[in-house]
Amino acid sequence: xxxxxxxxxxxxxxxxxxxxxxxxxxxxxxxxxxxxxxxxxxxxxxxxxxxxxxxxxxxxxxxxxxxxxxxxxxxxxxxxxxxxxxxxxxxxxxxxxxxxxxxxxxxxxxxxxxxxxxxxxxxxxxxxxxxxxxxxxxxxxxxxxxxxxxxxxxxxxxxxxxxxxxxxxxxxxxxxxxxxxxxxxxxxxxxxxxxxxxxxxxxxxxxxxxxxxxxxxxxxxxxxxxxxxxxxxxxxxxxxxxxxxxxxxxxxxxxxxxxxxxxxxxxxxxxxxxxxxxxxxxxxxxxxxxxxxxxxxxxxxxxxxxxxxxxxxxxxxxxxxxxxxxxxxxxxxxxxxxxxxxxxxxxxxxxxxxxxxxxxxxxxxxxxxxxxxxxxxxxxxxxxxxxxxxxxxxxxxxxxxxxxxxxxxxxxxxxxxxxxxxxxxxxxxxxxxxxxxxxxxxxxxxxxxxxxxxxxxxxxxxxxxxxxxxxxxxxxxxxxxxxxxxxxxxxxxxxxxxxxxxxxxxxxxxxxxxxxxxxxxxxxxxxxxxxxxxxxxxxxxxxxxxxxxxxxxxxxxxxxxxxxxxxxxxxxxxxxxxxxxxxxxxxxxxxxxxxxxxxxxxxxxxxxxxxxx
Length: 613
Ligand code: GDP
Ligand code: MG
Fold this sequence. Notes:
mitochondrial ribosome binding; alpha+beta; 15 helices; mitochondrion; GTP-binding; six-stranded mixed sheet; binds magnesium ion
């Protein structure tokens, strides 16, 4: 395939606007996969169990297809991307391998928060953008109105907008046509020395690391000797091929193509995402890599059985290879033993990672409460980033010498129908939002106009249940996106300072349950937490005091009574029913109990901490 007949593109959209469905239709229409019965909701590219269960795309996937137009055969490389704000790193990474993007917008919902953010990422990368309205088969679709919206928000020419139904297949032909006509072929050369961008990788049990690459110049074949610009390590190519959509070996990868390389990389860490590969002895200027990502939320992950730590760490290492946005460090807890402290881009990201560890690696784990990283500035101007509650200094003790605590803030944008503006403003203010502003998105002709509300808000306010509240209080209409806006000082003299709260079981502190809370909320949070713990911890043979403490001060207490001598009586009490109910809720009945000191602490004690406030 010469460059002129190659098109590398991506589908970008807000979550649920139909990316994966359209990807399936394109694969069917080009005969890459067999046609499925209409109405089947199984997306071919959503391979992970967590993706199929939740109906969201987590990992960007690559698929190649061929399409013939007036006797000329084209090679189309599609990169499907996730839409959720937590996975924006995947989006920008996928786009680095493309020359064009289909901007898909749901014709019943119009432009949503992530439509705007992905549009800007694509614009920055100078990609050709093809606007596509989807779901026009739905009675509630309002194509004219959304086309006007695209024009006013993005300056898109209404004549360029395609209208389709990814579900029925209506108009999808025109999408293929537009990809070929409007997206420029990659500018690559056969004669220049081999140069490829490594943009993704995963681990294969038999062949080691498989890297996804986009070939910028030159040709690569089995047996070629290549090297990494990043590590300077050398490899011999064992296999090359394309994703069709499964791996399909080919004799070579040509300039402009997107495909995979297996080259005997043994260690996950060797495949450095953003690396430039070249031929041994013929170095090239490395391409700009990807910006290192910044973790927004940290949590500890520990094996239920302490003996499983080595296995767990290896599983985490393998999994982080397919998701480079996760950062990992060892951590040890007096209550839970050896574990890892992981950094994520958001709580959905964290939850998905946890589920993947359980699904794909059969791990039995305990995840501690998520924390954002705080910047603690001392009077001698030393600055320390604290991402673990137990390392948070005791602010009530003046001798610790803390001058200021800075917390991370984000610039948030929320899109809602005008009617919910008041409700949304209230929600933002109750989460310490500042610089709240808004502007209208549609130009006033329709009855229900939509507004975009922007504000600066502390990250700690949105990592727990902000998204759920946002959805709940807007009847599901609000969409939400945010970007990092640095750190902001919270003055020590103000009441808003954060403190660390620790819980004690039987007088022993459980460090893994520690939380960072507002000083103003300490009483409420402390009380609520000991109550919750009291509910989830099964009764023991002896009485267990459950206490919340700040520094040395106990601020709340509940007492868990001992099981009565008649064991069966205890079994039919509330605890037994709760336990059964929980077992039913869980897919597997594998009980996750952690013995801490002499007390059995169930997994849900740790899970429940996720929904604080
Ligand atoms: P993604 O999150 O952007 O990948 O969205 P999906 O492809 O998973 O689609 C989200 C939901 O919208 C699924 O339930 C699809 O069946 C549905 N959907 C996608 N395209 C259409 C369409 O053209 N018409 C209708 N009626 N439903 C669609
Ligand atoms: Mg999807």
